[in-house]
Write a structure and sequence with these properties.
2 domains, 8-stranded parallel barrel, TIM Barrel, alpha/beta
Amino acid sequence: MGYITEDKRKVTTHRLKEMKQRGEKIAMLTAYDYTMAKIVDGAGIDVILVGDSASNVMAGNQTTLPITLDQMIYHAKSVVRGVNRALVVVDMPFGTYQINDSEAVTNAIKIMKVSHADTLKLEGGEEILPSVRHIIEAGIPVMGHLGLTPQSINKFGTYTVRAREEAEAEKLLSDAHKLEEVGCFSIVLEKIPAVLAERVARELTIPIIGIGAGGAVDGQVLVYADMLGMNTEFSPRFLRRYANLSETINNAVGNYVKDVKSGDFPNEKEQY
């Protein structure tokens, strides 16, 4: 049961815009399965991202590139079943919207029809505008993603902060305006200077969600495994850990092993 939010209504793209207008920050987290989605939704989160980061968190891949369309749909279906209030956003995986507009729309429709998700997220700016436009024209809400775009990691060659140089910063600002103009309901800005992110949030009317983009944007997103301390090998500056579940789970499993080995589990009260 949620203990933070008093508004139990379903979160929609329209409500996110209302939150920006009244200055209420938007809280967003990833989830990839039913059990975690139900917990996160119940805690009062506004937006759940079924991220292609499932490629890393769930499958152990080094990048987000290997995850497939059908795998993303599987994760999205699982999450949707556990959610009552949050807006569910699904990443379109690498290769499903870059080839041509027609294929992008076909894949977008498949995700929405099969998963029952609320919206989709696509990485990139001007270069993917035709695909974004056609997906939105098909009636599907789209969240943009600029800055460090993990699907382009092989092009970047590094996970360093993006848009430090003037030319890249100006392109990002231009891309953000173009994504709003084409109809995106929100944009994620990843790992860019806080001053630039603040400017984007100020100039655009749609909600800007940051990850490593400072506190002046309209909301924040993190990967749940990082903020809950399940992944202890990833410690960027922007990450705040709210728990140490790696240690908690390790201790719990260790105690279970000990109790089984010693014969302490199950005891008389734990059997029929």
